[in-house]
Amino acid sequence: MTPRKAKQRHNQASDYESDINYLTDNPIPPPARTNAELNLSALRRHNPAVASLLSIAPYAVVYIFSPTSQQWEKSGIEGTLFVCQLRPSDTGAERYTVMLLNRRGLENFEAELLKGADVEITEDYVILRANDGEHIYGLWIFSEPEPSSTANTRAINAQIIQDCALRAEASTRSVMQNSQQENIKPDCNAEDTEEDGAGGVPMGRQLSLRELFGQQREQDSGWSVKNHSPQPRKGQFTPSVDTQFFRSTNRPSQQNVQQANQVGAASQGPDLLGELFRKAGEGYLRGA
What we know:
This protein is of the alpha+beta class and 288 residues long.
């Protein structure tokens, strides 16, 4: 019996990227990703606005304060707690949030930090007042005694949460103050323009009829029927003894004026307009 020949294995092309590692002799290792990158990727699935990760608590439990029983009650949410910085708001204010990915269900916990007064640190809980003002949450953060690595986890995360709330409040207040100042500036410019319009017209702006005649009335306010000699304005000619002398010597006499009128009347010739009316009247009488 002849021995069988060993069949050569040929790798076939595949349309799936996941099959590449199985079809090559040297599989490509997956890209290295740090724990921070993996956590950010998981958090952005729940909130795409997450920009960076500030602090982590390995285990925390969310409690809700019951107004009826006046006691803390478990909410059923427990897992890893994350303190994150969000992308700035549309106005440029800083934003921060607390997220807890639930290990016991599909409902996660998230509370945005807006004011420093909404955060209170006690011996057992980090108390957060919700934005709706109706719910009060208590975050119990797990920590072990020294020399465990989680000995300061509760204190560190509680302080970071409170600092983030204060920073968010200060940033929002600063943005509001800047916007108010920007809204005031145009009003001041409008007042300056009105004052300039009263004394002079800015270059490049056309005068309306009301402004034009209003300025003319102000200029003529010093003249009246009873006052024919208003006070001279600045820049006008002021008569003096010398000017009166030249006026008296150069002023023509009444006799010279009459002679000039007679010469002008003689040079004008016959009254053509009167002659036309006279001829028209004669023609009318003849036709009658």
